[in-house]
Amino acid sequence: WDETHFGKMGSYYINRTFFFDVHPPLGKMLIGLAGYLSGYDGTFPFQKPGDRYEQHNYIGMRGVRLCRLVFCAFLGSCLVPFAYLTVLELSKSLPAALLTAFILIFDTGCITLSQYILLDPILMFFLMGAVLSMVKCNSCADRPFSASWWFWLSLTGVSLAGAMGVKFVGLFVVLLVGLNTIYDLWDLLGNLSLSLVMFGKHLLARVLCLIVLPLALYTATFAVHFAVLNRSGPGDGFFSSAFQSQLIGNNLHNVSVPE
């Protein structure tokens, strides 16, 4: 059922048809982009679960063959190295990291979620990417403001924006990173060898990379969403008449509407 739901939304992006959904737009935009790049034309109706795709090129969005752009399957497969690197960084134990990777490789739930057109593999990719980036940034604490420190801190912010841009469940990883940041700043504040100016730089760096950057990227996804979906569709009725007048094909298109 979910593949019918999100596959249809991928088609909406390809056809530039406006729709409304409870989730933020990033995941569905990426599904639509994967379908577009792999040759899918957005014509499959996605009416009910179990319908055969026949000649429609759905492989790019779903990803069960290596001969195409395997988007969801690729992101799902990234969870294994992400988990391996995270546990290796935290525990410094190769057996523990290998065991973690082994468990994920043979987890039927993870495999199943990653082979269909769903938001879940995209969400998990950004969630685990944020955790890995946070852990890597923590490991660079002894060399703050170095290139690697800036890279992992910025990548954490990008991953936070990605997680929030796919589903609001991403708020939980935002909370995790936020608590970790508060702990780091509290520890730095208690370091008497650190000047207030240097502490201010640490604070500013985290504000820029973990608040400003994610918010900018999150807002940008909505800007792209509204720029791409410029044709009338099933989501028109949820919005004002003034908004509907901007949609091509709507009965109110280019009509002068009072405020």
Automatic annotation (TrEMBL):
GO cellular component: endomembrane system; membrane
Keyword Membrane in record: yes
Localization annotation: Endomembrane system
Transmembrane segments: 66-87, 93-110, 117-135, 150-183, 203-228
Stretches assigned to coiled coil: none
Pfam families: PMT
UniProt-listed GO biological process terms: protein O-linked glycosylation
Topological category with respect to the lipid bilayer: Multi-pass membrane protein
Protein family per UniProt: Belongs to the glycosyltransferase 39 family.
Name of this protein: Protein O-mannosyl-transferase 2
Species this chain originates from: Certhia brachydactyla
